[in-house]
Amino acid sequence: MTASEKTYLGVPVRKPRAAFFSLTSCEGCQLQLLNNEATLLDFLSLLTIVNFREAVSERSENYEIAFVEGSISRADEIPRLKSIRAQAQTLVAMGSCACFGGVNQLKNRFSDLDWVKKQVYGDHPIETQDVLPLSAIVKVDLNIYGCPIKKEEVEKVITNLVLGKSIDYPQYPVCMECKANQNVCLFDLGEPCLGPITRAGCDSWCPSNRLGCWGCRGPAETANVRQLKQIMREHGFSDEQMLDRLECFGGFSKFINELKNQ
Amino acid sequence: MLFRVFSKNELKNLYDILAVNHIVGPVSKGCNKNSTALYDFDFVYDFEELQLEYSATIHSLKRFILPAKETLCSFTLQKNNWQKHVELNAYKPIVYFGLHACDINALNKLDKVLAGKIYPDPYYAAKRNNMFIIGVGCTPQPFCFCHSMGADSVLHGFDMFLTDLGDSYFAEILSARAFECLSGITCREPGKSEHQRFLEVAQEKMKRFTCHVDTTDLTKILDLEFQADVWREWGEKCLSCGTCANVCPTCYCYGVEENVDLDMRHAAKTRHLYSCNLIDFAEVAGGHNFRPHSHDRLKYRYYHKHRGFVEAFEESLCVGCGRCGNACLANITVPEVIASVRGKEGYHG
Question: What are the domain boundaries of chain A?
């Protein structure tokens, strides 16, 4: 299909050249993009994909939008990310690893990196450093949150990107969606949950399946972390339990020191 | 109003007569961690599922009449043209079996806003007009303050209201269709002793209220205490999560979103219920936010419920069901907030 064939109300829609890249990650977010077969063809037809190793074998370095998944955990990823930034007009951080460091940044909790390497790689250490989100190295134009990302949300983001509409995220916490889904509050069932402070957009994916939120989408625009700590204590959960969750994906890093010092 | 009494055994027959329709009622949702039974409104498929002696439901009826997300219209886009399709999303009549007085009063309050004469909301009205409501008497819970809000009994807005007299039900009948339903079961006019028992039950219920809100001169007090420090104290606790509005039977604020489908051949306009406690509720075009602080947003929620609505409709937009305080993880409850604004000691702020 060529660009001239795609129209919106008779107006031709230009298909931006898009590339997908993967840094330190499980590549689950890229797979998530290919997950919904019902809409896959429509999704792919909105973009001219020039680099997407999970989906196409062709390669080109000529692209306008770069979707970057994964975090920085090795020195060689920094020049690679910088060259992507130099090429792309729009750089999208895709998924919790790219936005916050993700599960990978859990290793930053340990003060002795050599000990971590020994535990993970044994006698075959590889070169690795403290994990960073993309925004620590380059300017990020757009974040797509979640571990993994939610396909429906990405579809909406890309449709709006192509149409030139504004891209809005929920600023409110997961509780909004959890209540809309008529769930019983997990605190009432004796489960800890970061839903009250975590950015929504996942349609309360985990809480709807009776798993308390681990905060993969990072803090909501207002995140009353101090109050949630109080609530956790009242419900019999330790500060360590809350910290384990807050530190899991890295989105709450700016709150951690404050909480530890309280 | 007509009155009838019927044996409790007859309730199943009444249910069967109505069960040709969809039935929504209080059903069990298991227990919480303290082994307290949980209930919610849901579709009922078997008479045995109906829990008429329920304490209270977690959520209100809004799921059925004012859903959290509703497609208002969809569009089929063609070249240089489009077609608009409007569905009111009310395909069938629904029997609501077992609503407490507070929830029926909540519907009556929503009617004033959404089914008024000048700008009725057709989506709400279509669902509202397709309701057959059977009310049922309740037992006041520790968090119920409906009596303070004048919502512990209901005078209109239902087809039939049942009061448990022990081995029989006392039925208040407000509609011809409710009267017709009763013609299918064995019932009779109440005698003097049943009148007596009906009044006793009402008095016994009154004695059980333990939670109260002093509403005397509340609109004036709220004006006087607009700058009170207590708002900041409550604001510091508030999670700005919108849970209070979501479980509230009378919160109706919403936002509208327009989205184009991936195929660019379809689009939809969707309504999402929103909450005035959410950070961007008062953000306007250009980015200015009139209420960036959680204490301001929390305060305005109380001002709408207990002041603005009273000035417009001479009644509060709160029925005292206590769901918001129950659901609030930060323990922000209406009785305590109002008491603190009135400067009363003893609130746990």
Answer: 3-163, 175-261
Distance CA B63, CA B82 (A): 31
Q: Does B1 touch chain A (CB under 8 A)?
A: no
Q: What is the pLDDT of residues B223-258, one digit of tens each?
A: 999 999 999 999 999 999 999 999 999 999 999 999
What value of ipTM does the predicted structure carry?
A: 0.94
The answer, for B259 touching chain A at a CB cutoff of 8 Å, is: yes
- Measured CA to CA, the distance from residue A16 to residue B157 in angstroms comes to 56
B35 contact residues in A (CB cutoff 8 A): none
pTM value is 0.94
Exposed e or buried b for every residue in A44-59, given b needs 16+ CB within 10 A?
Answer: bbbbbbbbbeeeeeee
Q: Any chain B CB within 8 A of the CB of A196?
A: yes
Residue type, A93: A
Report how far residue B13's alpha carbon sits from residue B186's, in angstroms, rounded to the nearest whole number: 9
Q: CB-based contact (8 Å) between B261 and chain A?
A: yes
CB contact under 8 A, A179 and B243: yes
**Ranges of each domain in chain B:** 2-66+88-207, 218-250+277-341
Chain B nearest-CA residue for A186:
B32
Buried b (16+ CB within 10 A) or exposed e, B92-126: eebbbbbbbbbbbbbbbbbeebbbeeeeebebbbb
Report the alpha-carbon distance of residue A252 to residue A247 in Å, rounded.
7
Task: Provide, as residue numbers in chain A, all residues whose Cβ is less than 8 Å from the Cβ of B242.
Answer: 172-173, 175-176, 179
pLDDT digits (tens, 9 = 90+) for A103-141: 999 999 888 888 999 998 999 988 899 999 999 999 999
The CATH homologous superfamily to which domain A3-163 belongs is NADH:ubiquinone oxidoreductase-like, 20kDa subunit (3.40.50.700)
